[in-house]
Amino acid sequence: MDNRYKPDASARMRKLYRLAGVSLGLLFILQAALNISLRLTFHAKTSDFEAMIKNLTEERDELKRKLNIFDNYIQQRWVYFKHSFYYISSTTKSWPNSRNDCLQRGADLVIINSKEEQEFMRRLEGRTWIGLTDRETEGTWRWVDGTFLSTSYWITGEPNSYEDKNEDCVEIRNPESEDSWNDAPCTYEKLWICEKTVAF
Ligand code: MMA
Ligand code: CA
């Protein structure tokens, strides 16, 4: 009676072993897959992280560089306002010499091309040369960068080339007022204001 069941029993065992084998095989494959995918994920996360660190380091260096530039200007008495640094002189010079001083500082006499910038000029304390002249063609006002004057802030009655005195350079005469420009002889000695635009 036992013998009758023996073949059956061993067949069942074989089936069982095969099942176990297949299961182990599957388990192995699953484990390998998991292993690989974890590694890949980890690797991806690591390189993400590394990229982020690299980015932050670059940003930090860029900020340091800008701060350095800023610091240098501030130490040399420049004032920052809307993407430009401004240098207000403490002595007086003719318009050409004023312009030369600005050029030597890597800047030029101020070019006023916004209402805000004109408002900013209110902090001046006395007659100050700006970068506007009609020395090349009488009556054609041009900024030091060669652009033609569009929006202007002349004092009423100016420019007048007063008594044909060859008033070819422009000063801010009464900084406290909205309209403050006057044409004056370029040889007169006045304060001056330089502007250096920076791309921040
Ligand atoms: C001064 C001089 C001129 C200006 C007149 C305005 C007397 O001359 O600053 O440039 O136009 O004043 O009265
Ligand atoms: Ca004048």
From TrEMBL:
<keyword id="KW-0175">Coiled coil</keyword>
<keyword id="KW-0430">Lectin</keyword>
<protein>
    <submittedName>
        <fullName>CD209 antigen-like protein C isoform X3</fullName>
    </submittedName>
</protein>
<dbReference type="InterPro" id="IPR001304">
    <property type="entry name" value="C-type_lectin-like"/>
</dbReference>
<feature type="domain" description="C-type lectin">
    <location>
        <begin position="81"/>
        <end position="195"/>
    </location>
</feature>
<feature type="coiled-coil region">
    <location>
        <begin position="46"/>
        <end position="73"/>
    </location>
</feature>
<keyword id="KW-1015">Disulfide bond</keyword>
<dbReference type="InterPro" id="IPR050111">
    <property type="entry name" value="C-type_lectin/snaclec_domain"/>
</dbReference>
<dbReference type="InterPro" id="IPR016187">
    <property type="entry name" value="CTDL_fold"/>
</dbReference>
<dbReference type="GO" id="GO:0030246">
    <property type="term" value="F:carbohydrate binding"/>
</dbReference>
<dbReference type="Pfam" id="PF00059">
    <property type="entry name" value="Lectin_C"/>
</dbReference>
<dbReference type="InterPro" id="IPR018378">
    <property type="entry name" value="C-type_lectin_CS"/>
</dbReference>
<dbReference type="InterPro" id="IPR033989">
    <property type="entry name" value="CD209-like_CTLD"/>
</dbReference>
<dbReference type="InterPro" id="IPR016186">
    <property type="entry name" value="C-type_lectin-like/link_sf"/>
</dbReference>
